């Protein structure tokens, strides 16, 4: 408890020890800025294969975009990164997902703690409709038992500022989360995910249910957030992937066809299928 | 003739204009008439009950009838509904209090915890219990439950009270097994399936996204239920409980068979009592005096109004607390 409080205090006051931990992790594991990594990750629903033997790195302070046509397994892959498949009936995951070199699917690892470290933002905004804006943001902190009002206020303000929502809602933190507009609700969901200070942020088509203006605000937000987080974003929108990401993985029929720097892949794709997809020949 | 031409011929064939015109109108009028007839039916029911009970209301006054504590169809011909009103309210409220939390727990277990096959089995059994005719429940109560309660609970409690604190005896009442407590517990057993089924329905309505949002924050299973599922389903759960309460109020056969049917105050916990439906079903055949019959009708009218209020409250709560499109309305 005290440790958590201390950690939260450091985070709030800007004395985050996270960058230190990252450096340690990198030195220990010898990765060059790799925050997460999958090795031969396969997800099956019953007998149907969702994604097959994906090996892909997620770099620190970079945005990794996952693109590909509908049903190609990008979301399936993303949900494997914070063990959301544990909750799906008859989904099985094989292979490894390493966070700072440790396999999160190791039998001794508690999926609940993993999900606290790897935050997730969904396609649809998901504020808890009966909770106030404030309680929505600090919901994750209350789960770990933080009740200190002052601390919760600080974290709430910081998270809302990070999500570029604070100015719009600062006067009505006690009104219900459902009273916000769609774009605001999505930024509220992002603030809620940021409040628990995750190490990696997963975003599953975070702008697909939003209007263009809200979308571009969220894209700006992603630019800001990547200074502190490793971000993985699934998107249908090729232009969006091009704008926000540093690396891109192209999925097709459950396989990772190509992975590389976004700029290189967009200008000079190695694989023929990637080229066809990027130029709009299918998908 | 070519195939296309054949098809064209069929398509060009003059459509039965009159038929279509008429069909539309026949369907529309049937739907409108049937729909309006529901309104007419309910109002005329209330009207008939009130009309038949008017003699009693004018004899004792509306509030006088409700507040009267004497029900004597034999000699004095005085009719007061308060014993039945209170009997109904006490048994129903107590039954709801007993049934509420177990029913919700079962509903949550079926919807959230149980593996699908087990959940299905329990769910079907719950539906089965709900479908048992109440007279069968009453028979079971008379021959199995009431004697068992008498032997295992009422008699020991009564004997203990006789020896240790005789002042409790009037509160406890006659431990014969048929009385308020027995009827209430059986009533609770009868409404658990309804509350359970409605709770489960309300929980199934909670969108997957809400649960996943809570999971993604690192919530445990119980925390997900507390944080995302119950708040979202609260309107449905409460409305279900109130509808079950309405059923408890109207439940007739099993209660009439088990409550002991004593028409006068004072009531006691284990001793006999009566409810509005039970007195109606018990006395209708013997109601020779017109004032007696009218009083029973008046009780029927009061019961009708109470049920109406309970249903309206349930509808209001559902609307007030329900959540649509991620927004609390």
Textual characterization of the structure:
In chain A, a hairpin with a 2-residue loop joins strand 1 and strand 2 (48-59). The longest helix of chain A has 14 residues, at 149-162. In chain A, helix 7 (149-162) crosses helix 9. Chain A has 283 residues and is an alpha/beta fold. In chain A, the strands form two sheets. Chain A has a six-stranded mixed sheet, sandwiched between helices. A four-stranded antiparallel sheet of chain A has the order 2-1-4-5. Chain A has helices at residues 2-12, 18-29, 74-80, 111-117, 133-137, 139-143, 149-162, 166-169, 182-195, 212-225, 238-244, 262-267, 272-278, and strands spanning 34-45, 48-59, 63-67, 91-99, 102-103, 118-121, 200-204, 230-234, 247-252, 255-261. Chain B is mainly α. Chain B has a single domain (57-328), classed as MetI-like fold (Orthogonal Bundle), CATH 1.10.3720. Chain B is built from 13 helices and four strands. In chain B, helix 5 crosses helix 8 and helix 9 packs antiparallel against helix 10. Chain B starts with a helix and ends with a strand. The interface between A and B is medium-sized, with 31 and 23 residues.
Please specify the SSE layout and strand pairing:
The complex is a heterodimer of chains A (about 280) and B (about 325).
Chain A (H helix, E strand, L loop, with lengths): L1 H11 L5 H12 L4 E12 L2 E12 L3 E5 L6 H7 L10 E9 L2 E2 L7 H7 E4 L11 H5 L1 H5 L5 H14 L3 H4 L12 H14 L4 E5 L7 H14 L4 E5 L3 H7 L2 E6 L2 E7 H6 L4 H7 L5
Parallel strand pairs in A: 3-8, 3-9, 6-7, 7-8
Antiparallel strand pairs in A: 1-2, 1-4, 4-5, 9-10
Chain B lengths: L2 H10 L4 H44 L1 H6 L3 E2 L5 E2 L2 H32 L2 H16 L2 H31 L4 H4 L7 H25 L3 H9 L4 H30 L2 H6 L17 H8 L6 H32 L1 E2 L2 E2 L1
Antiparallel strand pairs in B: 1-2, 3-4
Helix pairs in contact in B: 2-13, 4-5, 4-8, 4-10, 4-12, 5-8, 8-10, 9-10, 10-13, 12-13
């Amino acid at each position: 408890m005290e440790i958590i409080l201390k950690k939260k205090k450091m985070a709030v006051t800007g004395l985050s020890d996270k960058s230190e931990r990252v450096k340690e992790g990198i030195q220990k594991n010898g990765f060059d800025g790799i925050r997460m990594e999958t090795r031969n990750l396969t997800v099956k629903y019953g007998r149907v294969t969702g994604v097959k033997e994906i090996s892909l790195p997620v770099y620190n302070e970079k945005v990794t975009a996952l693109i590909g046509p509908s049903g190609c397994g990008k979301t399936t892959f993303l949900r494997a990164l914070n063990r959301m498949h544990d909750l799906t009936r008859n989904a099985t995951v094989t292979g490894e997902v390493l966070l700072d070199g440790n396999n999160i699917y190791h039998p001794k690892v508690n999926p609940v703690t993993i999900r606290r470290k790897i935050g997730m933002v969904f396609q649809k905004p998901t504020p808890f409709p009966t909770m106030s804006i404030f309680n929505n943001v600090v919901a994750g902190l209350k789960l770990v038992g933080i009740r200190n009002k002052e601390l919760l206020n600080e974290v709430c303000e910081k998270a809302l500022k990070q999500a570029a929502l604070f100015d719009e809602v600062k006067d009505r933190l006690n009104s219900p989360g459902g009273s916000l507009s769609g774009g605001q609700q999505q930024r509220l969901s992002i603030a809620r995910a940021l409040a628990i200070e995750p190490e990696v942020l997963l975003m599953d088509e975070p702008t697909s249910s939003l209007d263009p203006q809200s979308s571009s605000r969220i894209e700006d937000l992603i630019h800001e957030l990547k200074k502190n987080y490793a971000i993985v974003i699934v998107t249908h929108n090729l232009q969006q992937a091009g704008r926000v990401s540093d690396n891109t993985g192209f999925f097709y029929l459950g396989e990772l066809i190509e992975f590389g720097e976004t700029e290189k892949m967009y200008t000079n794709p190695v694989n023929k299928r990637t080229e066809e997809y990027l130029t709009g020949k299918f998908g | 003739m070519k195939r296309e031409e054949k098809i064209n011929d069929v398509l060009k064939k003059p459509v039965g204009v009159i038929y279509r015109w008429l069909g539309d109108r026949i369907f529309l009028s049937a739907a409108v008439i049937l729909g309006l007839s529901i309104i007419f039916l309910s109002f005329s029911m209330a009207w008939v009950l009130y009309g038949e009970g008017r003699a009693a209301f004018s004899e004792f006054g509306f509030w006088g009838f409700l507040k009267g504590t004497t029900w004597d169809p034999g000699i004095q011909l005085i009719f007061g509904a308060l014993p039945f009103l209170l009997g109904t309210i006490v048994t129903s409220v107590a039954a709801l209090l007993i049934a509420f939390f177990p029913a919700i727990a079962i509903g949550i277990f079926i919807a959230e915890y149980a593996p699908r096959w087990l959940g299905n089995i329990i769910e079907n059994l719950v539906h089965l219990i709900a479908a048992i005719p109440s007279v069968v429940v009453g028979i079971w109560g008379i021959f199995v439950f009431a004697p068992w309660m008498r032997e295992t609970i009422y008699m020991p409690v009564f004997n203990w009270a006789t020896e240790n604190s005789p002042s409790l005896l009037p509160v406890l009442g006659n431990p014969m097994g048929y009385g308020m407590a027995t009827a209430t517990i059986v009533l609770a057993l009868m409404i658990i399936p309804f509350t359970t089924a409605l709770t489960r329905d309300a929980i199934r309505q909670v969108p997957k996204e809400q649960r996943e949002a809570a999971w993604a924050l690192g919530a445990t299973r119980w925390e997900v239920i507390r944080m995302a599922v119950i708040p979202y389903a609260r309107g449905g759960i409460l409305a279900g409980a109130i509808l079950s309460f309405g059923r408890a109020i109207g439940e007739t056969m099993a209660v009439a068979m088990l409550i002991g049917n004593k028409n006068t105050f004072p009531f006691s916990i284990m001793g006999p009592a009566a409810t509005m439906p039970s007195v109606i079903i018990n006395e209708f055949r013997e109601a020779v005096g017109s004032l007696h019959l009218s009083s029973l009708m008046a009780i029927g009218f009061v019961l009708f109004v109470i049920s109406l209020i309970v249903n309206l409250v349930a509808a209001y709560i559902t609307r007030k607390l329900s959540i649509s499109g991620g927004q609390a309305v």
